[in-house]
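User: Hi! I'm working on a homework problem where we have to compare a predicted structure to a textbook description. Could you give me the structure for the chain below?
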Amino acid sequence: MSAIINNTFRTFNANNFISSIGTNNVYLLIGKSDAWTGTSRGEYAETAPSDTSIPIPIDTNIASAKHWDDVIAAKKIVTSNVSHVIKRVDWTSGDSYDSYSDDVEDQIGNNFFVFSEPSFNVYKCIDNGSGGSAASNNFPSTVEPTGTSTSLFPTADGYVWKFMFQVQQVDVLKFVTTDWLPVNSPATANQTEQLAVENNAATKNDGLEYIRVDNGGTGYIDDNGNVANSSNNTITLAVTASAVNGTYNDMSVYITSGTGNGELKLISAYDGATKIATLTSDWDNNPTTASVYSVAPTVTVSNGSNGSGATARVKTIVGGVIEKITVETNGNDYRIATATITGGAGTGAVVIPVVSPIGGHGSNSVTELGGAFVMLNTRLIGNDGSDFPVNDDFRKVHLVVNPKVSASGNAVASLNTYNKNELKQDSGEIIYSEFRAPINRAPDSTEDIKLVVEF
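Assistant: Happy to help. Predicted structure tokens:
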């Protein structure tokens, strides 16, 4: 028997942990005013720790008792200071980024999204412009993504991006670090751009948005120009088109501008002398001489009994190699899909439809970008309610759930701050321990403590 813990399970636990902050009283404990020195059975394994060589905590019953002995003070953590976080990947010109893929295991370990610091926007990389593997690291990004479009958008370097959300100013001081960014879903009322993305994703929930080129093949042809004439089921190509009968058979013609703009038709026959291509279906609006066409190999999308209606076209061919495919119609009900290239005289092209995550790109930034991490932020300001001593050090940071008040013995602590003597020793559950170098507290100091918990 074999099994795995899915990333969704990790996110599920992270969600539950955040929810529990609202139903339990969780406190940040600081402790240990004396220096790290000597051995400490059951607390750490190091034999010669120091304030510059910090020991690594271990989880034992002895450790819990020693942590309580070292407690200095406690401060309650409120829900507004808790957030899902994702790793911070700054967009940097010249760096390569992974494309989103629907078949990559544990994708949250990849750099498939970026943070744009000028705007504090986060973008998912849909296509890294490689013309090959979705995880290619040989195609640098040189144009920083911008804007808050709800649709996929390209940049001039060949990348295609999806705006996901903007980090809100109120969250910057609390949760943004050199390593982490806050993320939430669904969007709050004041996150209008993210809300628009989520609503748009719902309209494309089961549609197909992107087809990746894994191998561009060789020898493919295309043709572009102004329409010379058309009838209900024909198009007369430009005088520069091929003079060889059948050259464009089984290829597709797409109207890029003018009357008929956006229509995509399959060519069944081509007469090289007259430049007339016969189509398998009629135009909705017959192109005119002001219309511009593009003839390219045909992309056929299929998926057994699931999914229908998606159409796509070859957009770019360079030196006989297919470089870019554009999805024209998203279709419906796609769970997995295949695609083939026909016509155009070439061989060897391999293209892979990449199905969007359930709900669509941008529907849930937490699950899509790896929100299996939670940050808790607490600020200790001066003596903080007279409970936090100053002019001394601390070296331990803990989280304790539902500690009790020493005066009553059974009442769960609920005030904002407590000193050591106000809490019942060994009460509640210590669920997190971190050892640090000494942090000195002065009367005018503020310690901004950020704890990141991985699920």
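For your comparison, note the following. The chain has two domains: 1-33+70-205+358-455, 213-355. Residues 131-136 have pLDDT under 50 and may be disordered. Good luck with the assignment!
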